Amino acid sequence: MCLVACTQLSPAPPPELLIAAASDLAPAIPELTSELLQNQKITLRASIGSSGQLARQIEQGAPFDVFLSADEKFTEQLIQEGRAESSTLQIYAVGRLALWSKSGAVRQLADLTKPEIKRVAIANPAFAPYGRLAKEALQNAEIWQNVEPKIVLSETVRQTIQFAETGNVDATLTSWSLVHSRNGIQLPDAIRQSAVVIKGAKNAEAASRFLQFLQSSAGQGILGRHGLLPGTPPRDPLLQELKNNDSDGKSGGTDKQPQKSKSLRPAKKGNKYK
């Protein structure tokens, strides 16, 4: 009887969350995992990759509870496809583009045009938001045509660092979160990173608590220590448009398109993943 009673009184194991996390979050995942287990009683298991590839896995039925994208494009697309909960969409951080070279010789975008810089790594723009942002930055600087022949594509921003560390490329355009502690060069180009709970999540309640934690001072503090800026509130007009598909403004829709911040240049939405 004692054995039965002891078994009945034993605490339930903490819920386990399976999250799909963009590669620029890799440095922050261990600290987030430790904090959640200690103070939120949630076990975190992360699958890290490019946002586009993770979104495709979710489309194919991968059993993730939460998607942490490096931009808004892929979370919004999953909502429109009915694969994510629109009410949970949030901007959890703002990321910055960065330059990094092992030699430290590359200090600005214009340096990438120098003859001694033979190869430059960026993440594949078709799947990686920071890859699209890198291409945009080069185009806006009017040096894309000069740098394009030097471009080496990687699957993720983490892989761009590996290419640069091993000497396979001379420099990389990557995320600030990966090089802020490596004497990287922060660029002004920024991107809003968004999160959403996946429809049918096995641990929807814990997933919502996790997203609330990301918005808390503790969560933002962890992200900030790893080079990410504080997130901004979700775009309410967009949320209502996704929820109601109503543009007459009478039942929660919006008559106006949301204004884009002039200080941020989110990745363009022209590229569709397959």
Describe the 3D structure.
With 274 residues, this protein is α/β, with parallel strands linked by helices. Helices cover 35% and strands 20% of the residues. Strands 1, 2, 3, 4, 5, 6, 7, 8 and 9 form a nine-stranded mixed sheet that branches. Mean pLDDT is 85; it is low at 233-274.
Low-confidence stretches: 233-274
Oligomeric state of the chains? single chain
Q: Name the CATH class of the largest domain.
A: Alpha Beta
Q: Report the strand count.
A: 9
Q: How would you state the average pLDDT, rounded?
A: 85
Beta-strand content estimate:
15-25%
Write out key terms for the chains shown.
single chain, 274 residues, alpha/beta, D-Maltodextrin-Binding Protein, domain 2, 2 domains, 9-stranded mixed beta sheet, 11 helices, 9 strands, 35% helix, 20% strand, disordered C terminus
Q: What's a concise summary of this model?
A:
The protein is of the alpha/beta class and about 270 residues long.
SSE inventory with pairings:
Blueprint (H helix, E strand, L loop, with lengths): L1 H8 L6 E7 L6 H12 L2 E7 L1 H9 L6 E3 L4 H8 L9 E11 L19 E4 L5 H12 L3 H4 L3 E4 L2 H9 L5 E5 H4 L5 E13 L6 H12 L1 H9 L3 E2 L5 H9 L30
Parallel strand pairs: 1-2, 1-3, 5-6, 5-7
Antiparallel strand pairs: 3-8, 4-7, 4-8, 4-9
